[in-house]
Design goal:
- This protein has about 70 residues and is mostly helical.
- The protein has helices spanning about 30-40, 50-55; strands at about 10, 45-50.
- The protein has a two-stranded parallel sheet.
């Protein structure tokens, strides 16, 4: 719908991130996620994908795309 407008839509695909609701020590620190996300937002990327999320994005599971 916004294809021929000046609006740019970006997908942000976070990994597990430590927050008030998720204190899992294996999750990415919130400050690190924000820093990396802001760096990617300063580029022409169509998808905001931090380094820790790339392993999940590049290796989809057997039911990927089922919805």
């Amino acid at each position: 719908m916004l294809k021929d407008t000046s609006v740019k839509i970006l997908e942000i695909a976070p990994p597990g991130v430590q927050t008030y609701f998720n204190n899992d020590p294996s999750s990415m620190l919130l400050a690190s996620f924000i820093d990396e996300t802001m760096k990617v937002l300063g580029t022409d990327a169509d998808e905001v994908l931090v380094e820790e999320a790339k392993v999940f994005r590049n290796n989809p599971g057997p039911n990927e795309g089922i919805l």
